[in-house]
Amino acid sequence: MPEVAYLLDQASNVATFVIDTAGPVNTIGQQFVTDLEKSSARAVRDGVLGVLIVSGKKKSFLDGANLKEILAGATPQIARQIVQRYQDSLAFLAKCPFPVVAALDGQTALGGGFELLLWACDHVFSSPGSRMGLPEVSVGLFPAGGGTQTLKRVVGFKTAVDMITTARVGGVDAFANSGVFTICAASEMKSRAIRWIEQNQGIVNRNYDPNYEEPDSSSPEDKQVLLNRVRFRYTISPYRPYLVAAIDALEAGLSLPFEEAVRKEVDLFVPLLFHENSRNKIDLFFLVTSLGPKLVRVDPSKAVNVDKLAVIGSGLMGQGIAQVAADKGIKTTLIDIDEAKVKASLKTMTDTLEELVSRGRWSQARKDSVLANLSWTTEYSDLKDVPLVIECVFEDLGLKRKILAQVQAVNPNAVFASNTSTIPMSEISAGAKKPEQVVGMHYFSPVPLMPLLEVIQGPVSSKAAVATAVTAGRAMGKTIILVGDGPGFYTSRTFGNFVMNGIRLAELGVSPWDVDLLALQVGFPQGPLHIYGTTGGSVIYHASSFMAQRFPGRMNIPATLARLYEADYVGAGKPCFYLDSRKMTRDESVLQHIVRVEGCPVPTDQEAKDVLLLGMVNEAFWCLSDGVIKDYFSMDLGAVLGIGFPDCWHGPARYVSLKGVSDVKARLEELVAKFNMPALRPAPEFDRLIACGLESSLI
């Protein structure tokens, strides 16, 4: 079967291209391009009135390049030929002497698939629910199928820059006012597409029409200013070459003719396929999509079917968990003892969903479905037949035990999942009627956007309880790591180390704002002191105090942290280190509360970067030594997807593989000795690896 089938309707003289490649989603490989070329050439020979492109798959129109095929034994020369050939196939179809239209029925068009719509198609018909975008930078690449030059002709330059550099994927509603996309019922699409073809004979593809006006009327000078600003923001770290390439390609379009600008994409794209940091991101993508779902193996026959669940606690975390569950069709009850609070939370959720609809991110039908799946209560008796209860109140052991007892009093067989970020399951379940029903389901904020779920298996958690938590988490669309019990588990323990080391660097004499800048330079999305202000000093102080009690001598509380807490620098979003939400204006008043460490030199920039990055790496390996994290794959997934470890390094295990185990250990020992930082004492796992002769290739 061809991957682009050719069907000619004799009555209308319109040819239909049906995309149906091997695999669960349509992807662009060599066979696809060959078949697209053949179908396009045949349409020209047949003298068709126009072409209608559709998909043979239910959910996927065309979802980008088959990266495994491109990378399999590829040399730069072969990679260039592959990318160039796809561009040529789109250019040929765009220049054909007839209109080209696509029809999507609630399907996805991503990467090269979206570029087919942007370059080769004169118009697109879609039913509500279709999603599209250019997410290439999320896998270490950038759009090289014409996307940097064609998207701006549909949405305008500013929006195109934002979509490309942030990898934003949106609903078709976002393109409804472009004049290129028409949203209609699926039952109408074919007839409307044929009618559009009949009415637009002789149309010139907008990418080759010198009279076509982009939606954005800003001047070339204004566009250059925008690019300069974006370049400054996204090139702070030298380890993100794909963002530099994307901006360079966008900039090329300001001065080069269209056909030269798209060729520039190829020049910039090919080297990325062989760049260390881009390959790290590509490999991470494969880990998430291919291996990630297989990392946690549970017996599905032991899992309870979760067609409904309850969320206890109606704060931001509770709202997020409830929204995600309801969005996946799970009947969800939000419970809070304060009726006014739970009603206010539902109002907030409704307002948030309405905002998503108004911005074209969600369809009205999706919002209505979520709200229909949500209910609320203040009575625990209403949970008597719920198979899964997720608790997400604040970190208070006594309160969590009280809630567990109340739930098990009315529903002892329910799986009780705590969203705690630090308290071990062994302590929460102590004294419970059925401790084997207790597990951890640690979500990350904001829950609808963060892909990770950390499932914690307590010392007496039953296989059925764990299987239920894992199965429910997957049903909610989360990537899951399964970890062992212990204070802070894996992610909170490792993340806390990053924040504490940032404060320690300030105590050693590094400017707090330089600490954050150095974190960005090494690849972190945010600096540790930025995080302190946005998370809330009170939360961080109490979590750090908890961890210091459990790891005495190694995880000590910086004196500055206590001083900040005493001085009331505690609220999330409250000025601390920065005076504005964009973190642009320094809060100099905080300097009076920093306790300077005497007897140690001020770290150099490189030493500070190593403290931040190796500190997180080392703690991840401590978690492996302690049996909390189970394997290197889970280590890297959890660090990147949950706590912001720089994805350009793939994760802690890959970073150590690249730098060498002995060199990493030696550097940690040097930092411990020079700056008296016991938290950086090398993990025992490094000694085990060295003894086994393993220096690299851990993952």
Automatic annotation (TrEMBL):
> InterPro entries, alphabetically?
3-OHacyl-CoA_DH_NAD-bd, 3HC_DH_C, 6-PGluconate_DH-like_C_sf, 6PGD_dom2, ClpP/crotonase-like_dom_sf, Enoyl-CoA_hydra/iso, FA_oxidation_alpha_subunit, NAD(P)-bd_dom_sf
Listed SUPFAM superfamilies: 6-phosphogluconate dehydrogenase C-terminal domain-like, ClpP/crotonase, NAD(P)-binding Rossmann-fold domains
Choose any GO biological process term that the UniProt entry carries and state it: fatty acid beta-oxidation
Name the Pfam families for this protein.
Answer: 3HCDH, 3HCDH_N, ECH_1
Annotated catalysed reactions:
a (3S)-3-hydroxyacyl-CoA + NAD(+) = a 3-oxoacyl-CoA + NADH + H(+)
UniProt entry keywords in alphabetical sequence: Fatty acid metabolism, Lipid degradation, Lipid metabolism, Lyase, Multifunctional enzyme, NAD, Oxidoreductase
Q: Where is the 3-hydroxyacyl-CoA dehydrogenase NAD binding domain?
A: 308-485
**GO function terms (MF aspect):** enoyl-CoA hydratase activity; long-chain (3S)-3-hydroxyacyl-CoA dehydrogenase (NAD+) activity; NAD+ binding
Where the record annotates domain 3-hydroxyacyl-CoA dehydrogenase C-terminal, the positions are: 488-571
Q: In which pathway does it act?
A: Lipid metabolism; fatty acid beta-oxidation
Family per similarity comment: In the central section; belongs to the 3-hydroxyacyl-CoA dehydrogenase family.
Q: What is this protein called?
A: Enoyl-CoA hydratase/isomerase family protein
Q: Which organism is it from?
A: Desulfomonile tiedjei
